Structures are given as structure tokens and as C-alpha cells.
Amino acid sequence: MAVVILACAASARPAFAQSADETIRQTLPKVVKIYGAGGLRGLAAYSTGFIVSPEGHIATVWSHVLDRDEVTVVLNDGRRYEAKVLGAEPQLDLGMLKIKEEGLDLPYFDVSQAADAAPGTRVLAFSNMFKVAVGDEPVSVLHGVIAAKWDLSARRGRFRVPYQGPVYVVDAITNNPGAAGGVLTTRDGKLVGVIGKELRNSESNTWINYAIPIEQIKEPIAQIVESGIYVERKKPEEDNPRRYAALDFGLVMVPDVLYRTPAYVDSVLSGSPAAEAGLKPDDLVLFVNEELMQSVRMLNDELGYLEAGDTLRLIVQRGSGLVTVELAVERKGE
Q1: pLDDT in tens, 69-101
Q2: Contact 108, 131 (CB under 8 A)
Q3: Which helix (H) or strand (E) holds 296?
Q4: DSSP letters along 157-179, please?
Q5: CA distance 322 to 90
Q6: Number of helices (H) and strands (E), helices first, in the chain?
Q7: In the chain, which stretches have pLDDT less than 70?
Q8: 4: buried, middle or exposed (CB in 10 Å: 19+, 13-18, 0-12)?
Q9: Is 115 left (phi over 0), alpha (psi -120 to 50) or beta?
Q10: Residue 79 has what pLDDT?
Q11: Residue 193's pLDDT is what?
Q12: Residue 146 to residues 21, 174, 179, Cα–Cα distance (Å)
């Protein structure tokens, strides 16, 4: 009788059920290793991404690793390509790349088909943590359970992170060096989230393992894939002369000696709006009002759009953390 019962139970298993081994085989080719800026002051020069189009568009978490015009992407089979940084959505911690090679037909995640997951869902986490996969070795795979879903309240070091939306809290040690930008899937291979950076919960003083739900970032991913480029605003026209520059806010930037001199703060004038906002020497300006800054020159161009009454919002890198500050744009002379 026991044998008959077991046979019935086996035959009742859903025909669409997929093993974890099969999910891993199907997912690994869609995950890439990213190598770029870093290597100083404990900043890892590697991270993870996932392919979101057959032409080689790659989504990842925005980080210092992308602080270059081009980064190196290594596919699951060991092929290496140069990729261009297309753009970013800083408030969603999203960065987008595009492999420069043409004519590719790569396996990819269709973000429009991503799944929502509830607490208790068993998941797999794929990432290039600790840079263990430098060639054609597969990225690391962990299994765990979604423990909760709530709004993120965390810091990186002393600093709040830009993203403050809902996250999946995972019962597995997923958020390791290099893991940011990896993917979280269900056991049957449905895309659920992107693994975030290493963060410490500011309320409980504990490090958390989390993933940003794909639902939060799928729209900007689709927009960047469709446009193909990161659209930069045009320089001010001659009849709209530049009204403001970094010095107007009390920022003295490093000398603009190269075409793409990084936008580092050289000094901050005492008593200035920048000093009152807490900006410091050696801060690296990454974003001005959501625009990616690749040089001192771009910073000055972007400030030229400001008018009295605007809000100047800066995201700067300080050490290994990100700091967000806002300054009111006053009329000159006030």
C-alpha cells in the first residue's frame, strides 16, 4: 500500500516543476562579471551584472566600479568584451552598460516577465562575489529564503544610501564584495531581484542581505535599452549665459587639466553653502540633479543650467560611501 501511495504522490508532481540544477544551468549564461574602476582604499574593482537584451545590454547596481568610460565584461563562457556605460538611475541604484561588440545574440532576462515574491519563497542568488570566477568559471550560487519585504533603512559606513524603496531581505549571505548587481531568482528560474551593495541597517546596527525587486527598476531598464544611449543635455546657448559655477556655492574644484578630469572637490570655502551642507575636500561629485558627472568640465556645464529658486542636488563619493546633499540656489548677491 505504501508503494502505491508513493507512486501516486510522484505522479501528482506538477509537470512544469523545474529542478534547481536546471535553473542554474539556464541562469548562469545570463549573468556576467564586471571589471572596472577600484582597487584603492579597499574598493573592489569588480562586480556583477545581468544581460537584459540579446544585443548585450547589461543591468547592474551603480557603484564606483562603473566610474570609467568603459569597463570589461566577462561572459559565462569566458568571452571578454569592452562595454560602455550608458547611464544610471541613482535613486534606484541602477547602472546600465552595453557591450560594444555588434551582432550578438545572447541569452537574457526579459525584465517585463519578472516575478514578485512573498516571504518564505525559496530563492537562488547568482553573483561574482569575492571574484572567484575570473575566466570561464561559473559565478557563485547561493540558496536561501526571502525572509521579509520592507522599505530599506540602511547605511554604507556612515552614509545613507540613495535607494530608499522596498527590498527583499534574504536569509542567506548574499551581499558580499563583488556581489552587487547579481540576480535573485526563484527555484524555477523566474527573475525576482538584483542583489544590492553591502549595507548596515541603521536601526539595528546589523549588516543585511537584500535584493531590490525588479519591479522597481524594470521601467528605466526598458527605457535605456530602447534609447540605446545615455542622452546628455546640450550646453547652454549663447543667449542663455552660464549663471552659476562651482565657486558660487563655495566649491573649489581640482584644476581642469585633462579633458575628463574627475570632478573632485579641492577645497570648500568657509561659511559657504557647500560648507554648511557638509561637503568636504576630496569628495568626488558623481551626480548633479540626477545627471552623471564624468569630469570637472561637465560639472561646470551642468551648473550653468541653474537659476535662482532651483535646488542643487549632489551625490558625492566620500571614501567608500555615497553622500547626498541639497543646496538652495539663491539669486546672486543675496
Answers
A1: 789 999 999 999 999 988 878 778 899 999 999
A2: no
A3: helix 296-303
A4: TTEE-S--SEEEEESS----TTT
A5: 11
A6: 5, 22
A7: 1-17, 39-42, 155-162, 201-203, 228-242, 257-260, 332-334
A8: exposed
A9: beta
A10: 95
A11: 97
A12: 20, 11, 17
Distance CA 229, CA 324 (A): 26
What order of strands is seen across the sheet that includes strand 207-208? 159-160, 154-156, 199-201, 207-208
The Cα–Cα gap between 22 and 26 comes to 6
* Cα-only R_g, the chain: 22
Report the distance separating Cα 178 and Cα 188, nearest Å. 25
User: Which 3 state secondary structure label does DSSP give 27?
Assistant: helix
| CB 175, CB 197: distance < 8 Å | yes
Please report the pLDDT score of residue 280 as a whole number. 94
pLDDT for residue 242? 54
First to last CA, the chain: 90
Give the residues across from 145 on adjacent strands.
122
What are the cell numbers at 274?
557647500
List CB contacts of 220: < 8 A, sequence separation 6 or more.
89, 92, 94, 96
The Cβ-side half-sphere exposure at 194, using a 13 Å CA radius, reads: 33
pLDDT at 158: 45
- Angle at the Cα of 297 from the Cα atoms of 295 and 301, rounded to 5 degrees: 120
Would you state the pLDDT for residue 235?
A: 41
Name 70's bridge partners.
84
Classify burial at 75, counting beta carbons within 10 Å of its beta carbon; exposed 0-12, middle 13-18, buried 19 or more.
Answer: buried
- DSSP labels for 87-135? EEEGGGTEEEEEES-SS-------GGGPPP--TT-EEEEEE-GGG--SS
Q: Mapping DSSP to helix (H, G, I), strand (E, B) and coil, where does residue 262 land?
A: coil
Q: How far is CA 188 from the centre of its chain?
A: 25
Kindly report, residue by residue over 166-183, the tens digit of the pLDDT: 999 999 999 999 999 999
Measured distance CA(294)–CA(302) in Å, rounded: 11
User: Under a CB-based contact definition with an 8 Å cutoff, are residues 264 and 283 in contact?
Assistant: yes
